[in-house]
Design a protein that fits this description.
The chain has 291 residues and is an alpha+beta fold. It has helices at 2-8, 11-38, 44-55, 61-80, 86-105, 116-136, 144-154, 159-178, 180-205, 217-226, 255-268, and strands spanning 207-214, 233-238, 245-253, 273-279. It folds into two domains: 2-204, no CATH class; 206-279, ACT domain (Alpha-Beta Plaits), CATH 3.30.70. Helix 3 (44-55) packs parallel to helix 8 (159-178), helix 4 runs antiparallel to helix 5 and helix 8 runs antiparallel to helix 9 (180-205).
Length: 291
C-alpha cells in the first residue's frame, strides 16, 4: 500500500495535478467572467451554450455547458471505453463544476466593464493560456475535442477543418442571436483564438538550440554537464577558409540556462562562434517524449 501511495504521489504527478487544476480554472474563469456576460461565442461547447442560452432562457449558460460536456463525455466513453483520457475526463468535469460554482458565488447579470474589446481579449486569452497548460500535459477540457476524436476514428475528414467549420457556424449564429456587434466581436475572437493557443504552447515549450564552434570544447562541455546538468554532442570540424581545426558542440536548454551558457562561453572562449535558434519541438531524453 505504501509503495502504491509513493508511486501515485510523486512530485511529477503532483505537479501535473496542480497544472491540471490551474489550467481548468483559467479556462472556466475566462468563459464565465468574460464570455458569458458579453455573449462572445467563439465556437466550442461554451460558444454553443451561449447561443442556446439565448433561446432556452430557463437554463443558464453554465448549466448548458455542463449538460453538453457530460453528454459528450458519455459518448466518448461509449465510443472509446477505457482508452478515453482520464485527464480530459477529470478536467471536463471540474471545469463544469468550476463554472457552476462561480454562478452560485458570483452571479453576473452584466459585463465587468464597458470596454468590450478588452473583455474579448480576456475571454480569449485566459482560456488560451489554460488550454495551452492542459495540452502541454496531454489533457483538454473535452467538449469538441471528443467530437474530433470520434471523427478521426470513423471518417477520413480533415479534423482541423471540420472543427474550424463547426466553430465558424457557432460563431456566426451569435450574430443572429445577439446582433451584428456581438457577432463581429465573436468572429474576431475566433480569429485570435486560432493563433493564440498554438503561440502560447510554443512559448511554454520554448528552448534554445546552440551550435557552438570553439577551441575549448572541454571547458564548455564541463560547464554544460556539471553546472547546467544538460548534455551535448561534440563534432569535429574544419574552417573552410582557414582550415583550422575546431570542435562543434550541439546542445539544447531552457532560456535561463541559455543565458548562463552564453555568459560562460564569452568568458571561456571569447573567439567562439555561436548560433542560437529558438525551438519548441524537442523530443528526447530530458525533454518531451521520454520518461
Amino acid at each position: 500500500m505504501e509503495k502504491m501511495v509513493r508511486r501515485i504521489f510523486t512530485p511529477q504527478n503532483l505537479k501535473e495535478f496542480a497544472l491540471l487544476n490551474v489550467g481548468t480554472l483559467l479556462v472556466a474563469a475566462g468563459v464565465y467572467f468574460f464570455k458569458f456576460p458579453n455573449n462572445f461565442s467563439t465556437g466550442g461547447v461554451s460558444g454553443l451554450a451561449i447561443v442556446l442560452g439565448h433561446y432556452i432562457e430557463w437554463l443558464t449558460p453554465g448549466t448548458l455547458v455542463s449538460i453538453l460536456n457530460y453528454t459528450l463525455l458519455v459518448i466518448g466513453f461509449l465510443v472509446f471505453g477505457r482508452d478515453f483520457g482520464a485527464k480530459t475526463t477529470y478536467s471536463t468535469i471540474v471545469m463544469s463544476l468550476f463554472i457552476q460554482l462561480m454562478e452560485f458565488i458570483y452571479p453576473m447579470s452584466k459585463p465587468f466593464t464597458t470596454q468590450p474589446f478588452m473583455e474579448l481579449l480576456c475571454a480569449v486569452g485566459l482560456p488560451a493560456v489554460g488550454s495551452a497548460i492542459l495540452f502541454n500535459i496531454e489533457a483538454s477540457t473535452g467538449g469538441t475535442d471528443v467530437v474530433a476524436k470520434i471523427l478521426k476514428k470513423y471518417t477520413n475528414m480533415n479534423i482541423g477543418r471540420a472543427l474550424l467549420a463547426s466553430d465558424a457556424v457557432i460563431t456566426l449564429s451569435a450574430g443572429v442571436a445577439f446582433g451584428m456587434e456581438t457577432g463581429l466581436f465573436s468572429i474576431f475572437g475566433l480569429i485570435i483564438k486560432a493563433f493564440l493557443v498554438d503561440s502560447v504552447i510554443e512559448s511554454f515549450n520554448m528552448c534554445k538550440y546552440f551550435t557552438i564552434v570553439t577551441q575549448h570544447p572541454q571547458e564548455v562541455c564541463d560547464f554544460i554537464t556539471g553546472q547546467l546538468h544538460r548534455s551535448a554532442t561534440v563534432l569535429e570540424g574544419q574552417g573552410a577558409f582557414s582550415h583550422d581545426e575546431r570542435s562543434v558542440i550541439l546542445t539544447v536548454m531552457n532560456r535561463a540556462q541559455a543565458f548562463q551558457l552564453q555568459k560562460e562561453i564569452r568568458r571561456t572562449d571569447p573567439g567562439a562562434f555561436m548560433m542560437i535558434t529558438n525551438t519548441s519541438e524537442i523530443i528526447g531524453k530530458g525533454f518531451r517524449g521520454t520518461n
